[in-house]
Amino acid sequence: MNVRRSAAALAAAAVIGAATPALAASPSPTPSVAIPDGLYGTADPTYDGVWRQSLALLAQDTAGVVPADRAVAWLTGQQCANGAYAAFRPDPAKPCDAKLMVDTNSTAAAVQALTALGGHAARTGKAVAWLKSVQNADGGWGYNPGGASDANSTAVVTGALVAAGELPEQVVKGGKSPYDALLMFALPCTGDGAGAFAYQPDKQGKLTANADATAAAVLGALGQPLNASPKKADNAKKGADATASGCAAPTTPEQAARNGARYLSTALAKDHHLVSALPGAENQPDYGNTADAVVALAAAGHTDEATAALRWLEANAPQWAAQSGPAAYAQLVLAAHATGTDPRAFGSTDLVRLLDATGPAPKQTATKKPEASDASDDDGGSATLWVTVGAVVLVVLVAAALFLARARRRQQP
User: Which one, 125, 197, 231, 391, has the greatest CB density within 10 A?
Assistant: First the structure.
């Protein structure tokens, strides 16, 4: 999800049936509301408060940072009694009513952040239940409940379901799952944008390739959350080989994801970044969508393409993030994580330190996030540890025995 696409713009996109183009970052105007205590960033939170807070907390957790209690409390305090989240509730003490526009994206992002932090099962359970209750008959979700399904919203909700321990293929409405919905937005292997995903079909049902929607949908089709980890080397090779073999009819989520990854790889091949195209304006680098594409490609096993784009971001994106705020820093942290890169050594930039500085001082920081490992890795690591400890103990015992032997010899007449 592009940080420069506000919640309001997404809602408008759902109405007109096309994704709103990303805009170049610019300094934020003076906020029209007071910035609440515990919230990350200083820009007006009206349209992105919960989204940026969720991304910031998710990125911090991914980087091994324990966020401040009041930062987490701000996010939990935004939840409505029915489990849903709006983009921003200026007065959390006031019950949610019909005038408050709750949305699927804010709710799904909050689920992913709070699930990662742990200890919020009751809240995330209510949020997931609400998301299920507003699922469309085609299996997907629109930005607002009841709105036409779109690729971005369906993908971020799918990630929330996975993060919360749900099986998306079993979350069904009208006989359709989220994976069925994502396939509706997959373009065929012929024509413009072959293999990409569209945000939504237009009024005539035509699908138009959209890089932002493709990055989101690749993650969703792979059943991955926003903080997707690097794909294991053996699986990565299989995924890259399958994609290199060419586009195939998107009849399964896996094939659609491979097609989408292939489209993104081609789009990034020349300059290693995506662009935003506005009518009458010169194309500009699209930093947010490029970061999202890095995560999608890494999750799909395209390590080389993802790493090349990440190197471009290292050289060019820090200034964009400084202008755009915490969600932008979070996107870059997640992109670094997806490629196995330390976000504290993002070129010459420490992304974690800069992200931390946009909100309350964290309870605990870490020099580097420990890499997750599977059970076999843990067993091997434990065995190595015990062998090492045993060797050290043996050396100590031998040294002690030699010392005592020498001491006895000196005491003999």
Answer: 197
